[in-house]
Amino acid sequence: MAGLTGVVGLAALGGMAARDNKSGADRLSESQSSTAKQNVSDAGKADSAPDKGKKGGSGSDEGQSMESYGREWRGKDGREWRGKDDRRDDRRDDRKDGEDHAKEVPCDTETLVEVVNKAVRDDGGVFKLAKDCTYKFTEQTDQNAFPVIDEEIKILGNGAKLVHEGTELFRFFEVNSGGDLTLKDLTLSGGQVSGPPPAEGQGGALLVQEGGKAHLKKVTLVHNRATATGNGGNGGAIANFGYVTLEDSVAKDNHARSTGTGGNGGAIYNEGELKVHNSLLEKNTATTNAEGTGGTGGAIANFNDGIVTIAYSQIIKNLASNDGGGINSEDDTRLTVNRTKIAGNTAGGEGGGIYFDSSNAMRVEHAIIADNKAAEDGGGIWHDSDTSSTITGTKFYNNTAGRNGGGLFNDGDLTLADSEFKDNDARQGGAIFNNSGDLKIRHTKIIKNYASAPAGAGGIFRDGGTVELDDKTVVKKNEPTNCAGTVDGCFN
Q: Is the entire prediction scored with pTM above 0.70?
């Protein structure tokens, strides 16, 4: 199943691709002001260099279908699936870019900061950056490159990059209550924050406070990081306590790190409402030290009543030192995943693809969960919910757990329908391990999965709770047996 991992790279994501490969066409902001505020400087770069990403062509397909195991995920016209869904109700919320009356900003870092600062003091504004310019930031004010946003600000990037350089640690943007920030066609690279919460150690590129909003479209977030001790260091690229949308965008090689309970959300840490659409989250990491209990959610960590909705996206090759190699969602959170590929993620604890532990429900629909690994339980998904969750139309391929539940580990109330498990493996329950939850399986294929323990059951291992199969579910050709622990309707 290696073919499913990274099927679509940056170059295939159209408007989502980073615009870093401009060679001689790129311009640099070279402002030299007597105030020294936001000077362009070549003094020592931060510990991560800007990404040298690839350009990609635009284009998307409506109503994509997912094809069979072992083949590339393609749409009906044979092109690689990009995840676009032009039908979704909230694709446009009638927000206007305002390009016709945007103020054009020259390729000068200090000027950019000054015009945004003036707009924040006044009643907001719309700005269009110089095409393909690289704005370099070496200094900060209160941990931010720009003034704190508490008005409506729109920045139309025009292919530009905002790049952190030098030794000072700061993010690019902070949005306070009442603030509304729109970023479009822009790269944020190298933002770094470090220190104690609530602000300094959260959100390497962007921090959205409660009551604030941020809308990112065709934005690339790369090589940003948040580090701290204790419960800080969350959200390598974004920390959200308000409302954030991420559309047609890329978050790659961002890092969250802390000791203790922090270091969550390699790309995004959420305690508000987060919507991700048609975006790629790749090679982000969430880590903590050996004694820490944080380091969860290699791509996304969702905590404290947070709401996360992900559609038509890819979450691939992310890593968490503890739970949730791709996504970690706990503490009364809600999670919805629709037509999304979660593949090649690794968890040092549980839930290689997704770790979900909440009193609320999880919804996974028409997804691919493939090539994920968990050192402990739940190679593909680890689930525990007090409310009835559902997994529908989802393919679990080639996931691995060091202990139980190669494809799925269930400890809650879950209905699994119209899905498929193949080539998953674990010590017990190669496809599914039911611990103490109530699991209903409808119209699902569980074929050719493996367990290493002699009595481990390659198909379904019921350790406790209930497992109910309907007569349209097929469990066969699993090794060493199809089922263990008494599963009515399953024959070995």
A: yes
**From CA 389, how far away is CA 308, in angstroms rounded?**
15
> Which single residue is written with the structure tokens 């949308």?
245
Which stretches within 348-447 are classed as H helix?
none
The gap between the terminal CA atoms of the chain, to the nearest Å, is 26
Specify the pLDDT at position 40. Answer: 31
* Contacts of residue 134, Cβ cutoff 8 Å, sequence gap at least 6: 26, 27, 28, 29, 160, 161, 163
Please give the structure tokens belonging to residue 337.
């995943």
Asked if 457 contacts 431 with a C-beta cutoff of 8 angstroms, the reply is: no
Instruction: Flag the least confident range among 21-25, 86-90, 159-163, 224-228.
Output: 21-25
Query: Tokens 């001790």 — which residue?
Result: 229
* 196 pLDDT tier (thresholds 50, 70, 90): low
Question: 315-328 burial, b if ≥16 CB within 10 A, otherwise e?
Answer: bbbbbbbbbbbbbb
Q: Which amino acid is at 76?
A: K
Higher pLDDT, 250 or 492: 250
Amino acid residing at 240: N
Burial tier of 51 (Cβ tally within 10 Å: 0-12, 13-18, 19+): buried
CA pair distance 80, 102, nearest whole angstrom: 35
- Assigned token pair, 345: 């993620």
